[in-house]
Amino acid sequence: MKKLLDIAAEIVQAQASVGLMSAEQIEQSLIKTFSTLQRIQQAEDRGMLLEGVPAGEISSSQIVGEPIQSIQDDKIVCLECGTQMRQLTTKHLGAHNLTPREYKRKWGFSMKQPLSARSLTKARSKAAKKRGLPEKLVKFLEERKQKKLETLATSELAVEKAGSGASVKKTVRAHTTA
Predict the structure, then answer these.
(1) 160: exposed, middle or buried (C-beta count within 10 Å: 0-12, 13-18, 19+)?
(2) Where among 32, 59, 86 does a domain terminate?
(3) What is the pTM of this model?
(4) Which of 16, 67, 115, 119 is deepest in the core (most CB within 10 A)?
């Protein structure tokens, strides 16, 4: 197996053969290429992904280790292909034959975790609060709970009035199937 320095030297040699390069340019190119190859090797050894950026512009902050780190303030990185976007859409995940639920399960995300950039999630939350969604949701849940309690109380009252065993069974059976 070739050493990184040999690989870097071959790459720089190929660049130098195509166009004129000064000794200083060759040296800088060799240093950049070698350090980039080192970062790639380190990421590969750790089982990490590199985002799709030109080789000279890779920084250690662009190596994604934990899946949760793929969700950033201004973008989310698809852990399947490395594409950066504001939101992982169902259509994009479909290209990988995954649903959002399967993607979350595969990469260990909570089912409640939105697959979008943090700034987009915050903006949506702020807009929902502005429309009064939390208060309306609480009100809806209370009304639904109250309706269930009334239905249960009505069915229990019917059971008490029935008195005979056959009537009670019919009422209970009707209540459980409804």
Answers:
(1) exposed
(2) 59
(3) 0.45
(4) 115
